[in-house]
Amino acid sequence: MIKATAVDKRFEDLQAVSNLTLHVQRGSIYGLLGSNGAGKTTLLKMLAGIYKQDQGKITINNQPIYEVPDTKQRVLFIPDQPYFLHQTSLNNMAAFYEQVYTHWNSNRFKQITDHFKMDPNKKLNRMSKGMQRQASFILSLSTMPEVMILDEPFDGLDPVVRQQMKNLILQDVADRGLTLLVSSHNLREMEDFCDYVGIMHKGTLLFERDMDELKTDIHKLQIAFRVVPDKSFLDGLNVLHYEKRGSVLLCIVKGSVGEISDYVESYNPAIFDLLPLTLEEIFIYELGGVGYEIRNLIVE
Ligand SMILES: Nc1ncnc2c1ncn2[C@@H]1O[C@H](COP(=O)(O)OP(=O)(O)OP(=O)(O)O)[C@@H](O)[C@H]1O
To answer: Which of 118, 137, 154, 197 is 20 to 30 A off residue 130, Cα-Cα?
Structure first.
């Protein structure tokens, strides 16, 4: 559905996105995570056809997006800062969208506007940040998009509205096969919302995984031994990270629960816990692996 192949983007002497390849399947929700300045917004803007890539290929539904109005009809981008025409109301914006988007759905616009109790005649620039964000969602969802590309979309929404917006999106994913690419720093929220996640750092995609696979394939082990084995113990596991905390060995390992458990149990440990890894832990370990680890800040 959304395909980026070997994409580069440079701003003067800064390589913002470098040789990046990404594929988002139809009807799936892909969460783009990453460090500050990783290049997420730049990538999303290229995928939405706002920036042109310097190198590489981008297609949506096998069609290029940049300067191709037909593709743009079905692709909606919501930036991190909502943007509206000057001194305008939600109703005026709706009239504008209706001219531009051929699949505009007036009934849907009215239904969602009523549901969120938005005043469609109030000037948008007099609305709060969260209300402006709701307005962006209402307009976007009323264009009946095939693809939505969202840059930190839920920031500024209260928990109730946030959940309702997510429910509306999930309904479109289930009913119409909407495809969603969403960037966020809220890892807890992405963990529940996304089918796939990718982690970006310094313009490249470090890591890309199916969320279900992630939950069944990477684990955290806490082991205390009666008789501490030598280091060859770790050679029998696919270890991503390990540390010793007193007499407890803490490991992050890849592999199936059955194989890992059989192996560790064969050492007859006094304590052995196998726990799922949170997305936050994966994020920290993956970025730690490329030198972006958490260090305590000491100031004089
Ligand atoms: N229009 C621009 N002109 C010059 N440099 C830019 C421009 N837009 C982004 N950059 C630079 O490109 C790099 C990637 O920025 P980008 O906004 O894509 O990162 P991000 O992953 O979205 O960051 P954050 O999580 O902090 O929002 C940064 O170093 C940024 O300063």
So the answer is: 197
Residue 238 token pair: 């696919």
* C-alpha separations of 137 from 64, 86, 194 in Å: 25, 18, 18
For range 179-184, the mean pLDDT: 96
- Quote the pLDDT of residue 298: 61
Any ligand 1 atom below 6 A from CB of 37: yes
**β-strand partners of 151:** 183
Closest C-alpha residue for ligand 1 atom 17: 41
Closest residue to atom 31 of ligand 1, CA basis: 37
Query: What pLDDT, on the 0 to 100 scale, is given for residue 295?
Result: 62
Residue that the structure tokens 């991503």 belong to: 240
Q: Is the pLDDT of residue 211 over 60?
A: yes
Q: How far is the CA of 39 from the centre of ligand 1 (A)?
A: 5
Q: Are 149 and 181 in contact (CB under 8 A)?
A: yes
Cα of 48 vs centre of ligand 1, distance in Å, is 16
ipTM surpassing 0.90, yes or no?
yes
Q: What is the pTM of this model?
A: 0.88
What domains lie within the chain, and their CATH numbers?
2-202 (3.40.50.300), 214-296 (3.30.70)
Q: Give the residue-averaged pLDDT of 44-73.
A: 93
